[in-house]
Amino acid sequence: MHSSLSNIRLAGLAVTTGSVVRDFIADGLAAGVDRAALERTAKTIGLRERRVAAAGITALDLCADAAERLLSEMGLDATSIDAVIFVTQTPDHFQPNNASLLHGRLGLSKSAPAYDLSMGCSGWVTGLHQAALLCAHGGAARVLLCAGDTLSRLTNPGDRSTDPLFGDAGSATLVEKTGRSAPLHFVLGADGSGAEAIIVRQGGARHPAGSLNERTDAEGNRTHDANLVMNGADVFSFTLREVPSAIESVMRHAGYVPATTDALVLHQANRFILSTLAKKTGFTEAQTPMSIVEHFGNQSSASIPCALIHGLADRLEAGPLKVVGCGFGVGLSWGAFAGEIGPLIVAPIQTLPR
Amino acid sequence: MTRSEQLAALRADVDALAHADEATVLASLPQWDSLAILLVVSHFEHVYEREITGAQVRACRTVADILNLNSSLS
């Protein structure tokens, strides 16, 4: 689906990460993995360290901290927010949703609706589209989009193919209605036939908590039914099949070409995937921030805002920049965007607790 | 591409296969793991612009079987 929305802008960004630093090599050695094998993976995939949430800290806590810091940085009162959207697949509870809990925690107005989007790595772009829709056509002047997960809680420490990839983070993005006419363009899609490529089988209504069915694969990776399991090769194939065409499509709608675009900001899956995608879409590595995974880990729906802040904060504050981006992952699903971002207010990346 | 050129390109892209020949049994290679399978998928995409799945690669017993994936896709 293609959508172009005018009279909206990104006004502010903030990201809060988990506080516990996990070192890829040290963790691997402790798990009995050969150092040479670890160094080979670290070099190829781009893994070094990641930040995961401390005990008791949830995606709601991380996003609430980011939102509070952003509102403070912008000098805004929470009652000026017309709606809150929360993108997560690691909510505090099945009911109520995280957006309602955040609504109460921040003290938002009773006239502000609050709803969750159950999406992962593509979710920030879908959430941005929802927030932009509310501002462009839904009667909202200011929408708070929070996106984040604590996926490190779902992976099995014995699954060396998946566990070392993920960090925990929460983001806050403020979207506002303006008189500015330059549109933001979106291309959103899904391929549910690939839904089992990234899955947590147990814990929902289909397979409530029960026997965990622990298993070990041919490489010795251990998982059970309540773990996040990922078929990395199939996710890679999906990414190469869908993401370049989504990026090219959204750039056609925006009238952008790589040479005159300031940045390609992708979901920070890993350096290997990002480098491949940059090459396939005609962008240079200098245009494509890709260091989030080696500093923070794969942060699910918080990774694009984290990459925007980590790689481009100064330029976004001075703005505008012509930015193309794409999130992709669980579903399987993807969302690409293109448009001018900035000038905007950026709160620095911080940990919780600090 | 000749068969030997295909083998050379595969060996250049997939470190686990750097010293392998067509008869090499994949399971005998210490670095034949999920990362190597990812690199094979990537190799087919960028050399041949062809999509293969991890399951197709896992089903291969020898390096020759991987090279045969290319002709089976023709």
User: What is the CATH class designation of chain A?
Assistant: Alpha Beta
| Poorly predicted segments of chain B | none
Strand content bin of chain B: under 5%
- What structural class do the secondary elements of chain A suggest? alpha/beta
Strand content of chain A: 25-35%
Query: Helix proportion of residues of chain B, in percent?
Result: 55-70%
Count structural domains of chain B: 1
Q: End-to-end span of chain A in angstroms?
A: 41 Å
Give the helix tally of chain A.
Answer: 9
Would you state the CATH class of chain B? Mainly Alpha
CATH topology of chain A: Peroxisomal Thiolase, Chain A, domain 1
Number of strands of chain B: 0
Report the strand count of chain A: 18
DSSP helix fraction of chain A: 25-40%
* Total helical segments of chain B: 4
Q: How would you sum up this structure, described in words?
A:
The complex is a heterodimer of chains A (354) and B (74). Helices cover 32% and strands 26% of the residues of chain A. Chain A contains nine helices and 18 strands. In chain A, the strands form five sheets. In chain A, strands 2, 5, 6, 7, 8, 17 and 18 form a seven-stranded mixed sheet that branches. Chain A is globular and about 60 Å long. The model of chain A has no long low-confidence stretch (mean pLDDT 95). Chain B has one domain (3-72): Orthogonal Bundle (Non-ribosomal Peptide Synthetase Peptidyl Carrier Protein, Chain A). Chain B contains four helices and no strands. The longest helix of chain B is centred in the middle third of the chain and has 15 residues, at 34-48.
What's this, in brief?
Chain A contains 9 helices and 18 strands. Chain A is of the alpha/beta class. Chain B is an all-alpha fold.
Q: What labels would you give this structure?
A:
heterodimer; A: 354 residues; alpha/beta; Peroxisomal Thiolase, Chain A, domain 1; seven-stranded mixed β-sheet; 26% strand; B: 74 residues; mainly alpha; Non-ribosomal Peptide Synthetase Peptidyl Carrier Protein, Chain A; 4 helices
